[in-house]
Each structure stands twice: as C-alpha cells, then as structure tokens.
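Entry for the shared binder. Reason: the reviewer on the internal report wants the predicted structure included alongside the sequence.
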Amino acid sequence: MKLREGRLDLSATDVSNFLGCRHRVGLEMAAAAGDLTKPVFDDPQLEAMFRRGLEHESRYVASLTAPGRTVVDLGQERDPERATALTLRAMQEGADVIVQAALRHERWQGRPDVLVKVSGSSRFGAWSCEAEDTKLARETRAGAILQLCLYCELLERAQGKRPAQFRIVTPRGVHAYRVDDFAAYFRWVCASLDALTRESAEAVAGASYPEPCEHCEICPWSSRCAQRRRADDHLSLVAGISRSQRRELEEHRVGTLTAIAGTPLPLRFKAKRGAPDSYVRVREQARLQLDSRGRERPLHELRALEEGKGLGRLPPPSPGDIFLDLEGDA
C-alpha cells in the first residue's frame, strides 16, 4: 500500500491483509500517509521461511528454462513503472516465461512470481499469459487465491484476454485453479477493500478492534496491537478463552479480564454459546491471572484428580517406557 500522487495504490498483498485483519488496513493506510511508522518485524522463523520460499521459486524457474525458451527475469527491477513497462514489452514480444513480472491498472498493482506463455490469441498475437505463484504451504489459503485472482484481473487488462486458470506451485506439485470459480468472491473482496480505503485511516482503524487472530503471526503491527490489548485489559488476555466466549461475555457487559475475574459465582447469566462450566473455568483462570499480577511467580491451583481422566489414563509405569513428543511442522 503506497500513496502516489495523492492516491492510495493497492497491491495483491493488501488484498490478502484485508482478508486477514481489517484493523491492519487502517494501520497500513496511516503508514502510507506518513502518520505512523511501520514497525520492523524481526522474526527469524519467518526469515528462514522467506529464504526457503526464494529457493523453491529459483528451483521452479530453473525447471522452466530450456533450449529455445525465452526467460525474462525482472526480479532485480525495483522501479515499479519501469518493471511494468518491461513486463508489457516481454509479453508483446512473446517471452515464454517472465519472472517477477509487474502488472498495473489504475490503483491496483501486483507482481506474480511467474507469467507463462500459453496458446490462445490476445492483443499481442496468437498467445497469451497465465500467472503462477510458488508457495511452500501444503494447503492453499484464501489469501493466495485472491492474490492470483488479482494477477489474472491485471493480466486481462494488459493482454485483452482473461486467463482461464492460474496455478500455485508447491514442493508437491503444480495445482491449477479456474479463475471463474473465484471471480465473484474476488470482485466482492476488491470492491470492499476499495471502498474501505477511500475512508480516512483513523476511521478504518477505529471501526475494528485489534482482536488477536491467525494473521498476527506474520503482521508487523502485532506488538502494537498486543500493547493496546494489555492497556485495555482485554478479555483475550485470559488464557484459553475462545473468541466466541469473548463475544458472549461482551454481550453481558463483561469486557475485561478484571471484570470476568470479579464476576460472582454462580454466574448470573445463561450463555447462548457453549457449556456453562466452560465460563466458570474462564472466570477462575482470569481470577488466577489477576491475583498473579505483580508477583514474581504466577499463582497456580491444582485441579482435582479424576479417575480415568487426564494423566490418570496412563498405564502403570514399567521398564522400557518411551515418551515421544511429536512437533508439528507446517
């Protein structure tokens, strides 16, 4: 997201960010206008994933290189205007592969990993281009789909022909998707983002609270949002509380950790979502956390032993027992 000649330009990444967290859109708008400084997000794990992604892309591009095929690599071209012009020239000249192409139409822009020449007439001749992105994830996420839909929209503007499909290249293979299967949803998302970003950054950020979500794991603003939640004593600070439980409690005007910790037992409201016992557990967890504030070591309470539950399900110890801890690796 960048402010150019008084207009806010949007990219494929902005579409994905909008899907992940609307509060981030307002913060990005403020940063583009110079009202906020975008934090540096230093995460060694993400940096390692980024390097692996570049290696995966390089291997795939190498696999597309063959005698007689024209490969145009624009990965080192940082100037958006020049990159766009070079992309259009390569498409016009019928390049077989364009790496890190640059596409633009009005306020929208995108840089697909790869454009591949396919048969089928366009305004350039008896060929056209389709977009491909390389991804490490085993499962294709909605954000990736929408990014490629934007590339296809920009391709249609550039070549006068809508691509029939786009592809996501993972270490396990190439996965093709029909553009028409996602076109309607894509148009709705882009129209929503377009309308949202025509408001003020303050209004956009103020219209949505920075709720913790999956997007926080990759968001440079996550520390700022976490600080605000701590300052607000937000319900999300209660360990183990779910979003549906937070919504339920807020409907009963219980909006902070301190408030739920001080709620008398038995609870005076009947929950519409979830079992009543789950809210008692949330209340007790909040009480322990509140009482632990300011202490060097947090308080804890042992749960009552129940025969046949929890660790009680383990068989009696015997010689040769092995304990195995499997870590997830997505």
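Summary line for the report: The two ends are 29 Å apart (CA to CA).
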